[in-house]
TrEMBL record:
The protein's name: Transglutaminase family protein
Superkingdom to which the source organism belongs: Bacteria
Record Pfam families: Transglut_core
Record organism: Corynebacterium marinum
PANTHER family per UniProt: BLR5614 PROTEIN-RELATED, CONSERVED INTEGRAL MEMBRANE PROTEIN
Domain Transglutaminase-like: start-end pairs: 24-130
Lineage: Bacteria, Bacillati, Actinomycetota, Actinomycetes, Mycobacteriales
Length: 191
């Protein structure tokens, strides 16, 4: 299968060309692509905390900021995940889900897709969500499973994004800190 070069290219917020991202991707690289996919995923899932869990206020946006802070909202966690995969030479992109917010209404949740034909059920891209670490009460218990969507309103949006969606980038720029973003600034649409 031919994938566009954008699936491996750095962007402003998915800065896979940052030296710290490159170094970590090399350190996490396994003997096979499937091991690398797993090791990078586990690193982000279990070592990058979410400010909703910690009360942290730092609002990291780029992958390198998220790595330095060791914390980020779901979008930042997904940016880091995609950047590490790209730095390891594995095609990856962003996806978004519409989910119900704690205060009602639908907001975007950031997840990622990674080219993993050896472990994906479809033989291609694998949808991954690093939001809940293994020891978190909301962890699904399934290694790769994303959060359980609640039909009929919550859903995976169909578009694949090789760069951060404009609505997400705007929300990250406009919020004063992570807690403000979580309280009132989560976008409901990608544009």
């Amino acid at each position: 299968m031919h994938l566009e070069p954008e699936f491996l290219s750095p962007t402003t917020l998915i800065d896979s060309d940052h030296p710290d991202i490159i170094a970590l991707a090399a350190a996490l690289g396994g003997d096979t692509p499937a091991e690398t996919v797993r090791d990078i995923f586990v690193y982000v899932r279990d070592r990058i905390t979410h400010p909703a869990d910690t009360g942290g206020t730092l609002l990291a946006a780029s992958a390198s900021e998220t790595l330095k802070a060791r914390e980020g909202v779901c979008y930042a966690q997904a940016h880091l995940l995609v950047a590490l995969y790209r730095a390891a030479g594995i095609p990856a992109a962003l996806r978004y889900q519409q989910v119900e917010s704690a205060t009602g209404g639908l907001v975007l949740h950031g997840v990622a897709i990674v080219w993993a034909p050896d472990i994906s059920e479809t033989g291609g891209f694998l949808l991954v969500d690093p939001r809940y670490p293994e020891n978190h009460p909301r962890h699904s218990g399934d290694f790769w499973r994303t959060r359980a969507l609640q039909p009929p309103f919550e859903r995976n949006l169909p578009m694949i994004h090789t760069d951060v969606a404009p609505g997400v980038a705007k929300a990250l720029r406009q919020a004063a800190d992570a807690q403000e973003l979580l309280r009132t600034g989560l976008p409901g649409a990608v544009s």
